[in-house]
Amino acid sequence: MTGHVKTVAVLTARPGKAEALRALLGGLIEPSRAEPGNLRYDLWCDPAAPGRFVLDELYIDHAAIDAHRSTPHFQHYLAHIADLADRSAWTMDAVDVA
Predict the structure, then answer these.
(1) Does the structural domain 5-93 have CATH classification 3.30.70.1060?
(2) Potential cystine with 51: which of 5, 15, 18, 26 (Cβ 3.0-4.6 Å)?
(3) What's the rounded Cα separation, in Å, for the pair 77 and 44?
C-alpha cells in the first residue's frame, strides 16, 4: 500500500461546448504536471462519445491534492466547468497498487 491518492473525473460536455471543454481541460495539463506533489496528470477522450473526457490524476498524498486545488489554474477550472460540462469526480486512497 502506498500513500498515493488518485482523483478521477468524468466530464461530459454540454451541447455545443465540447471544444471549449477540451481547451479548458488542456489548460490544466502543463501547470498541474509541474506541481511538486503531482505524479501523473492525464487527459483522456472517449472515442465513442467525443464530448466525454476523463481526467486521471495521481498525487503523492492528500496535502498535494489540497495544494493543487488552491492553484490559480484549478480555481480557473472551477469557475468555468459548470457552464461547460456535467462532472463526476472521485478521490481515492490506494489499497493495493503496483
Answers:
(1) no
(2) 18
(3) 17
